[in-house]
Amino acid sequence: MPDFDLIIVGAGPGGYVAAIRAAQLGLSVACVEQERTLGGTCVRVGCIPSKALLESSERFAMAGHALEEHGVRVGEVTLDLARMMQRKADVVKSNTDGVAYLFKKHKIERFEGRGELKGAGHVVVHGTDGETELHAEHVVLATGSRVAPLRGVEIDGERIVTSTEALEFDEVPESLVVIGAGVIGLELGSVWARLGARVTVLEYLDRILLGIDDEIAKESRKIFTKQGLDIRTGVRVTGASVEDGTVTVEVEDGESVKADRVLVATGRLPNSEGLGLEEAGVETDAAGRVTVDERFMTNLERVYAIGDLIHGPMLAHKAEEDGVAVAELIAAGRAPHVDYLLVPNVVYTEPEIASVGHTEEALREAGTPYRKGVFPFQANGRARAIGLTSGKVKILAHKETDRVLGVHIVGPRAGDLIAECVAAMAFHATSEDVARVVHAHPTLAEAVKEAALAVDGRALHI
Ligand code: NAD
């Protein structure tokens, strides 16, 4: 007899959410996690601590330059980095403790150690005090992803770091080079720039934020440059070396760049190694992702994989939806379809950038006829009142059916505004539907309504 109905390997947003949902549905669940605390990269060293630092650093920056216009005088603003870091650690702890509490509440049995798949229904846990054999009817692999190495640039964790260490600097570097103008590079680059570092971002492509609508990425780049980020595109980093505490970053066909610290943010890879996949006969693709069918099942019967370990966007909320779906499939034999086109993407810079659905380039490339409505926050009353008027909302709708095909926002609270747009798209709304919905006044969300009106050339406040 198996010990459990379900073994989950990995307690990140994919794994822990799958565990909770499966337990809610009455399954006995074991969850294997090699770190001491639960929550995975997102909670421990990713989304949560970075958002804590983004918030603190933004408050510091605003206190320095944006309060006076509100008639608030604060005198000299000084930084207590140790306190800021302690607050971040407290925020992380309350979240990891929260997951531990939920495990207890749902009687999910936790095993500490590295999980290795031995075959269908069989996992070995390599713990500090030996090995434990676990058996279950079903196994879900949810081991997430790790920083992709960059050839020629060796991470030493001190001067040349990944996002994990860049959340832990004990002093503000005078100069920071960020390799990669993706999400991590721009979020953490913003944190340290606000706290006083001279930040240079080196990006291989001729644009920032690959995957984000081009018009929105261009506008964002202008805003970040105004904030003081030195963003250089078309620059391929080929190497880096440390001498006397200074890093020299080598670039192809160009002058090297020197900095106190270097953050490597050039993407992530699925954690499919060391899991026993090859020995167990689980198939992976060329990118190292576990191959699954539409039920998240691998080629091994009743062995599933979710989250960053499989195809689709590498995002915590995508992993969570995968987790719920796989748990419902296992427990009840049916599951909602997770539509990856409707997974919103948010960059938590200031202003935030958020998008869902197709970009304008993708529509053009596919030859899809569309209309576009754009509304700037400059013309939104609430944005003026709070003094955050950069950016715009752009809605793309099918030219004939008017169905919303994509929404792209750079602007204040874009990450919250996109929720309405995701819901609209999930319910197959037209731009007319969005435009007819009553939006409270004065709110930033009115910019979404106005962009929807603009699709038909009838925006009211511009
Ligand atoms: P990314 O893929 O978003 O961006 C990496 C960038 O590095 C690319 O633009 C790439 O062209 C560039 N690059 C690669 N090699 C280079 C070289 N040799 N020289 C210069 N530039 C080079 O990767 P990331 O920012 O590391 O993020 C990793 C993952 O984590 C992403 O999937 C992201 O979605 C996820 N993440 C999401 C959030 C969020 O949702 N807010 C936050 C952090 C991370």
Task: Describe what you observe in this structure.
The protein is of the alpha/beta class and 462 residues long. It folds into three domains: 4-147 and 269-340, FAD/NAD(P)-binding domain (3-Layer(bba) Sandwich); 160-266, FAD/NAD(P)-binding domain, CATH 3.50.50.60; 351-455, Enolase-like, domain 1. It has 14 helices and 22 strands. Strands 1, 2, 3, 4, 5, 6 and 17 form a seven-stranded mixed beta sheet that branches. Helix 1 runs parallel beside helix 9 (316-332). The protein is globular, with a radius of gyration of 23 Å.
Question: What's the structural blueprint in terms of helices and strands?
Answer:
Blueprint: E1 4-9, H1 13-24, E2 29-33, H2 40-45, H3 47-65, H4 81-105, E3 109-112, E4 114-119, E5 122-127, E6 130-141, E7 145-147, E8 160-161, H5 163-166, E9 175-179, H6 183-194, E10 198-202, H7 214-226, E11 230-232, E12 237-243, E13 246-251, E14 257-259, E15 261-264, E16 268-270, H8 277-280, E17 303-305, H9 316-332, E18 345-347, E19 352-357, H10 360-366, E20 370-376, H11 381-386, E21 392-398, E22 404-411, H12 414-426, H13 431-436, H14 446-455
Parallel strand pairs: 1-2, 1-6, 2-3, 6-17, 8-15, 9-10, 9-15, 10-11
Antiparallel strand pairs: 4-5, 5-6, 7-16, 12-13, 13-14, 18-19, 19-22, 20-21, 21-22
